[in-house]
Write a structure and sequence with these properties.
The complex is a heterodimer of chains A (125) and B (213). Chain A has 125 residues and is mainly α. Chain A has five helices and no strands. The longest helix of chain A has 29 residues, at 94-122. Chain A starts with 15 loop residues before the first helix and ends with a helix. Classes of the chains: A mainly alpha (125), B alpha/beta (213).
């Protein structure tokens, strides 16, 4: 894998160079950050599913997930979430909220898969 | 307090506050906001479950996350360490700040609070030099925490650093922050954070040396 491992098109799913910068080059901190994100991911996914009932709750969840994604150098997810957060600044219909959810969940699942393989690559044992 | 209440595992506000190492006011705030389970007697006194107090005490005693970082390393015995309170409900953000600080600034002690209420308790218990806080938390957010620190005379030496992904407009919409709060936007530069903390530590040392002379 290269430093933009997991990238499909455009913005990388995971940006290894950005993670290294975040951790000031410390490899063990990079791994800790990735593991921490993966530990939090199921809870964040569940929170998102519950938050679909209101625009404000969904926006809050999206904002929190975006914060975590910054520290895991999940560039594409940050981009996706930033756009949704902006859209959720005003009240939107349940249909729109579900549409937003349907666009986030596959991205999150892809990100998790990419980060799992990244950790496996860095910690082969 | 009656023997019956004691035998039922209930504590008075004073006893509970003493166990937690916080003021009665802070404890009452916890009770009033439902953060700790309590009952009111017919005479209007609050009684708090001992088990709930002990659980909260254990939680507050966790100065760093369970990831296993050392509490601190005393590289220069006798020198004052910088005490940092990290307030965030995002485990990845906590991992970032604690991981970075404990690795790059060994003369530091990190305490973690997972919302504004816990932060208020830790402020009383630990008297941190620096508070690094997220802004979006429930039920008591970083805005409220920063304002509380700003307005209370006993915390006038506490430096507050807010880390957020909110835009300037969103911060304004939520009432803004006191002027003395340093605002760092995500994605934040680790060099900037460490630079600030190192400068703060240097200033503390100079101040200590100046006082000794």
């Amino acid at each position: 894998m290269n430093e933009f491992s997991g990238s499909l098109v455009g913005t990388p799913v995971f940006n290894a160079a950005a993670l290294a910068r975040t951790a000031m080059g410390d490899e063990s901190l990079q791994i800790d950050l990735l593991k921490s994100f993966l530990r939090s991911a199921p809870g964040m996914r569940a929170d998102l599913l519950q938050a679909v009932i209101s625009s404000a709750q969904l926006r809050e969840c999206v904002h929190r997930l975006k914060g975590s994604c910054h520290f895991a150098a999940a560039d594409r997810m940050v981009e996706v979430l930033t756009a949704h957060e902006l859209a959720l600044r005003k009240e939107v219909s349940e249909r729109t909220r579900r549409k937003i959810m349907r666009s986030i969940l596959p991205e999150l699942d892809l990100l998790v898969r990419v980060l799992v393989s990244e950790i496996a690559r860095r910690c082969p044992t | 307090m009656t023997e019956l209440a004691k035998s039922n595992g209930l504590l008075g506000v004073g006893e509970a506050a003493e166990i937690l190492g916080v003021s009665r006011t802070s404890l009452q705030r916890l009770v009033d906001t439902g953060r700790i389970a309590a009952i009111k007697t017919s005479g209007g006194h609050r009684r708090i479950e001992r088990s709930a107090v002990m659980a909260l005490r254990d939680r507050l005693a966790t100065t760093v996350p369970a990831a296993g970082h050392a509490l601190y390393t005393m590289t220069h015995p006798g020198r004052r360490k910088i005490e940092i309170l990290i307030v965030d409900d995002d485990e990845v953000a906590i991992e970032f700040v604690v991981g970075l600080v404990t690795r790059k600034l060994p003369e530091s002690v990190c305490t973690v609070a997972r919302d504004g209420f816990e932060a208020v308790l830790q402020l009383e218990r630990r008297r941190p030099d620096v508070v690094i806080t997220d802004l979006c938390m429930t039920p008591f957010d970083g805005f409220g925490l920063a304002r509380l620190i700003h307005t209370k005379a006993e915390y006038r030496d506490v430096c507050v650093l807010a880390i957020t992904a909110l835009s300037d407009e969103e911060i304004r919409e939520r009432g803004g922050l006191p002027a003395d709060v340093l605002l760092y936007k995500k994605p934040m530069s680790p060099e900037r954070l460490m630079g600030y903390l190192e400068a703060h530590l240097q200033a503390m040392r100079k101040h200590c040396e100046g006082s000794r002379r």
